[in-house]
């Protein structure tokens, strides 16, 4: 019995998916039962890396999601619309859905899962987080026995590639971004990668699975990597840190049902397991009880790895259809039935270490003044170093002990008001893990 897949999108991931579905030799025998039924694209004239029967290609994507011959719709066009409407139409037509689209799931998961549950179909999304890394299924199934306390991930391949190239080769930000686009890692609009939005979409999905509640995407604090300079990378190295864009979701201490969910560039101690994750690789560190720590590592973007995750979901659905038939109840381990939203704590409540770099006139007492501003707001300093000069201004770098974000911000305000008199400027502020 053959199951027919309708592919929406035939770009980087769509091409990789079609390549696996057409070359089944020595892969899972269930692939013999899966056929590409139709392929939807924006332009019929574009040259394609894989030659498909031209009759399979269409620009009428609605006709695919409503085609009675299609069993599984695989959404690989990306973005919010028409992806959202096409997924809803596919569900209404009784199709199971596989998607790599974290943006649409993070924002419309509520609506899409409600529709899917009502129609009795699956929406599977392994490719949406961590590319080829199996992380969605482990959170749904293998780690189901655990009480998860924290998830910390490098979940965007493009920004990890950029930060690695800047750190290891001293490469220029814009040039590396162009490379990441050419390699097929970046989103259609790479702002989503660079500004941390893609990582925020992904941590929303992971937090929802790990903590069992829906996540308001808008409540996630999100800072990207644009402000990470070569100077900060170099100071971080000197101090024994590596800068990574981290996505973090954790339970708030003493507040059972409140989460902290945030994305920001972070100085990681070199000994931390995530500090050595380089290039397009991603990793997700999950902490829970009783498992302790478990880390998932692998290629976070790119044609083949992402297609590997997409096809694993197609296989999962084909396996269910083959063994149980079309009209069976949804497996609760694979479907999503969250009803409530998790409360998200405001960023001011987060307790973390900070790194700050100041540029100041090299005169006696400047470090003392900084110390006074920090002391007034209970910010205690772990280290203060003055190594270099920039345009005749001394560069002072401080690393704090753990402090509440609100207190640190107040101390910076104090430094700012003081700097009006005495030429101190705040060149950069980053969090330290
Ligand atoms: N690239 C990666 O490494 C990863 C991507 N993803 C996700 O996978 C999805 C696809 O990404 P990717 O393959 O890189 O994207 P691409 O831009 O390479 O491909 C998008 C495809 O969708 C088609 N398409 C886009 N908009 C429309 C439309 N309105 N109507 C019809 N067809 C349309 C395009 O058609 P045409 O070819 O004619 O232009 C193209 O074939 C996204 O959600 C992305 O976030 C997830 C993990 C990793
Ligand atoms: N643009 C994304 C693609 C995978 O999700 C990334 O760079 O990680
Ligand atoms: Na994945």
From TrEMBL:
<keyword id="KW-0560">Oxidoreductase</keyword>
<comment type="pathway">
    <text>Amino-acid biosynthesis; L-methionine biosynthesis via de novo pathway; L-homoserine from L-aspartate: step 3/3.</text>
</comment>
<feature type="domain" description="ACT">
    <location>
        <begin position="355"/>
        <end position="433"/>
    </location>
</feature>
<keyword id="KW-0028">Amino-acid biosynthesis</keyword>
<dbReference type="InterPro" id="IPR036291">
    <property type="entry name" value="NAD(P)-bd_dom_sf"/>
</dbReference>
<feature type="binding site">
    <location>
        <begin position="8"/>
        <end position="15"/>
    </location>
    <ligand>
        <name>NADP(+)</name>
    </ligand>
</feature>
<feature type="binding site">
    <location>
        <position position="102"/>
    </location>
    <ligand>
        <name>NADPH</name>
    </ligand>
</feature>
<dbReference type="Pfam" id="PF01842">
    <property type="entry name" value="ACT"/>
</dbReference>
<comment type="pathway">
    <text>Amino-acid biosynthesis; L-threonine biosynthesis; L-threonine from L-aspartate: step 3/5.</text>
</comment>
<dbReference type="GO" id="GO:0009088">
    <property type="term" value="P:threonine biosynthetic process"/>
</dbReference>
<dbReference type="GO" id="GO:0009086">
    <property type="term" value="P:methionine biosynthetic process"/>
</dbReference>
<keyword id="KW-0521">NADP</keyword>
<dbReference type="InterPro" id="IPR016204">
    <property type="entry name" value="HDH"/>
</dbReference>
<keyword id="KW-0915">Sodium</keyword>
<dbReference type="GO" id="GO:0050661">
    <property type="term" value="F:NADP binding"/>
</dbReference>
<dbReference type="InterPro" id="IPR019811">
    <property type="entry name" value="HDH_CS"/>
</dbReference>
<protein>
    <recommendedName>
        <fullName>Homoserine dehydrogenase</fullName>
        <ecNumber>1.1.1.3</ecNumber>
    </recommendedName>
</protein>
<feature type="binding site">
    <location>
        <position position="187"/>
    </location>
    <ligand>
        <name>L-homoserine</name>
    </ligand>
</feature>
<dbReference type="InterPro" id="IPR045865">
    <property type="entry name" value="ACT-like_dom_sf"/>
</dbReference>
<feature type="active site" description="Proton donor">
    <location>
        <position position="202"/>
    </location>
</feature>
<comment type="similarity">
    <text>Belongs to the homoserine dehydrogenase family.</text>
</comment>
<dbReference type="InterPro" id="IPR002912">
    <property type="entry name" value="ACT_dom"/>
</dbReference>
<keyword id="KW-0791">Threonine biosynthesis</keyword>
<dbReference type="GO" id="GO:0004412">
    <property type="term" value="F:homoserine dehydrogenase activity"/>
</dbReference>
<dbReference type="InterPro" id="IPR005106">
    <property type="entry name" value="Asp/hSer_DH_NAD-bd"/>
</dbReference>
<keyword id="KW-0486">Methionine biosynthesis</keyword>
<dbReference type="Pfam" id="PF03447">
    <property type="entry name" value="NAD_binding_3"/>
</dbReference>
<dbReference type="Pfam" id="PF00742">
    <property type="entry name" value="Homoserine_dh"/>
</dbReference>
<dbReference type="InterPro" id="IPR001342">
    <property type="entry name" value="HDH_cat"/>
</dbReference>
